[in-house]
Structure formats: C-alpha cells, structure tokens
Write a structure and sequence with these properties.
5 strands; 54% strand; five-stranded mixed sheet
C-alpha cells in the first residue's frame, strides 16, 4: 500500500508551505493552504489505490487519515 502524507514546512513558528509527499521521497507538490494540500493528497491517493493518506498538523502530529481500497 502506497502512503501519501501532507506535512508543514516551517520556519520558526510560522508555516511556510504545506507539502504532499509520496512515501519517503521528496515532496511532489507545495501549497500555501492546508486545504489545497489535502485535496491534492486525496486526489493522488484515490488515483493510486490501494493507498493511505496521512495528514499532519504544524506540530507533526497526525490529525487525519484516509484509506483508499
């Protein structure tokens, strides 16, 4: 099962960008808004079933998870 993640790129206390990553590779996409990154992550995971999307907050804690079969 392929895993996609949405993670924050931070400088100090502020979030600069939200990244969509495929497993442990370099980020595939960068977004200014979390909602846009989540939408892209869901799209990629849906298109590449079976897969899982894990969304992390700016503290690197899991806040949401979706499994696509």
């Amino acid at each position: 099962m392929r895993e996609y993640t949405v993670r924050a790129e931070k400088t100090g206390e502020s979030v600069d960008h939200w990244y969509v990553k495929i497993e442990n590779t370099a980020p595939t996409s960068s977004f200014d808004k979390l909602d846009d990154a989540i939408a892209e992550g869901k799209k990629l995971a849906e298109e590449n079933k079976p897969s899982r999307l894990v969304v992390y907050n700016h503290l690197h804690e899991i806040v949401d998870e979706h499994v696509y079969k």
